[in-house]
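Researcher: Next entry in the queue.
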Amino acid sequence: MDHTLISPRVGALVQARMGSTRLPGKALLPLPLGGATSVLGHVIARAQAAEQVHLVVVATSTLLADDAIANAAQASEVVVYRGDEQDVLRRFHEAAVAHQLDVVVRLTADNPAIDPGYLDRAILAHLAAGADYTLTTGLPLGTNLEVVNQQALATAFAQATAPEEREHVTPYLRRHPELFRLQTLDFGMAEVPTTLRLTLDYPSDYALLHLLFSTLPSGFDLAEAGELLKQHPWLVHINDQNSQVKV
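Model: Structure for this entry, 247 residues:
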């Protein structure tokens, strides 16, 4: 009898669209450095660099405007899944089923500075704890991570009814600790302030990211970003005002 253990199939699902109201088309804005040429391209490359990720899927909508997202992902030789624009939870659930994923990492196409090392740590901690949902904290905005079991995602898909639960994928899980094994990992880094914005919502966010990706080595990690901040503390002020914006 074969007693070989079967490792869970882990997929990174990258939520992407063109229709941002604050910064339209932000996922395909150019970012220099390495082989990737766009914000989305860097998200894909960093997810692929994680050793614990078996498959990267770009999950976009069926809208004509998002053909550009699908074309860019296909040009990067990445799997694309297209689904409902508003019901992103449905899109994630269907993509996970279609690609036979056991564990899903939720990523978004406006967070190009995710750190593959922390991605691996989050996945391994999720599996070791037998968690249904793992959330990391303590990292800069745009670099924390969510890991969820496909069965828990399927339960949320079947039971979530609030619009924000359908749009943002994971709120139903966090709201029902009686149903799911929830885990929070504090990855706080002394060298990188949690107030640092490494997400892309506004032009000044893009200015900071473009500067980092133009200055740091290809594939830079958060520790290297922290070293640059230590040398040039003013960098955090390029976009810190965006954290106060009411939306």
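Model: The chain has one domain: 10-189.
Researcher: Noted, moving on.
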